[in-house]
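Sequence only, no structure available. Ideas?
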Amino acid sequence: MSQAQAASAAVTEVPLLDLKGQYAPLRAEIEAVMKEVCDSQTFILGPKVEALEGEIAAYSNAAHGVGTSSGTDALLLALMALGIGPGDEVITTPFTFFATAGVVSRLGARPVFCDIDPDTCNLDPAAVAAFIREHCSSESGQLVNKDSGGRVRVLMPVHLYGQCADMTPLMTLAREHGLRVVEDAAQAIGAEDSNGQRAGSIGDVGCFSFFPSKNLGAFGDAGMCVTNDAELAEKMKILRVHGGERRYYHSAVGGNFRLDALQAAIISVKLKHLEQWSAERQQHAKYYDERFAELGPSVKTPGVRDGCRHIYNQYTIRVPDRDSLKQYLTDKHIGCAIYYPVPLHLQECFKELGYREGDLPESEAAANAVLSLPVYPELSTAQQDYVVDSISDYLRQ
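Reply:
I predicted one. Tokens follow.
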């Protein structure tokens, strides 16, 4: 038995994520900034939030940041600032976390689902172009869905798993048809498209989540909108405090979407380490790619578009008989997860939209085959070998 094989054999458990391992070396610094917030007694918005807004905007190559209470609220706030409401429609992907379409419905608008690219699992520009060509018309400069009569006003691509959607053709479609673009970049802070543009800075608004499991995670819910539009940034800042430009005077009906100072302080500490963490995730992904190549075509590794910077919020493979493999890995104490088992167009709450099984075949196929494996920065080579060797053992059964 080789030294590497011996190390792998010594591993008996691999969690999907190890937040304790991330926290341990940062404990003193995080506790110090938390003490600063406690001593200041400024817990909502304030200097720590303003500082983080500038840091995240700069990191994302955007001009303005607007801290929010969650990634979901970032999406909701962006659509509110763009005036989306009843009678409006938002083109997006069905293969994403529920919030992407949920915020559209919460505003009384209608999500329109287009299929994904099977290689990256991101929104397929060709599918968007086909929907516009076959189902829409231009009426007085406004794109209208001929099937529903709704005004198509926003394109919302999702940068799934840590890789940017194919933004160049998507932005071209948006400009040609007068659509605003909201990037759901919840899983993709620091990712870049093939033109070197950072996730969140390409469209009108980019929306991040700092949920604890994200590459840059808070100690609870937190989010951020970034934009290069100063007027839009100011509108979002007003809307996140119930539409009050000054206290108790409300020019619009907004919501309570404020970011806590404690969360901002914690995220600011972690941000200094994000580049290193992303590099380590990329190294782990490369090692997985090399090891899985030994197993042949039974395991499809993540497709990465040429020239893109993938930051691997998840490392997601596609395998036949996925559910059986997931149970096998679970029995081996290997953390794994399905992102996502049911595409949104088939969710019960969206049945009134009229989609049927088979309407978006690539999304449905992905939902039946994807499995995400541990890829966090603290992962050891021995742990990765245990994951790959276990999958190899399963395939040989």
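The chain has two domains: 3-18+274-395, 26-271.
Hope that gets you unstuck.
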